[in-house]
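Form 7-S
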Amino acid sequence: MSELVLTTERLELWRPQVGDLDGLNAINTDPRTLKFLGNWGPSRADSFARLLRNAGGWSFYGYGVCMIRRRGATQIIGTCGVFRSYRGFAHGLDDVPESGWIIHPDHWRQGYAGEAMRAVLAWFDEVHGPQRVACMIEAEHAVSQKLAGQLGFVEYARHVDGEGKELVLYERV
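Output:
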């Protein structure tokens, strides 16, 4: 059984495990999700690499990406968390706590991302102490930008990626 990290009124969040590959792949390969995932290939191998990276963050830092399901359900409906990454384009996003959320499009507009992220950020602050957490959101993704503001993130820079997409960079201090 997976290691449960957090529960909310409607959700359960747990550390990634091997059995999560199919659910993660279903989210990552949906064309509606890919619209906002940037320069990333939608293959099962890529989902496997992402699953390993998500699990590895917990071992290195004591925090990372969580898998999300509705309470009492088995289907993965999303991922979210505070994790470490190395974006390689500076702007304060290299080797720092970074926040992110992805919800399967069949579950959009139900408040799951906000509910999960409020729990994750409260847990992170309690366990690891309040500190700067960054995030990046494509400029065209208005819904996630609105959520970032509701979670206490403020814009501090912008970056154009290799595909010409503008990314809005946020931080929560």
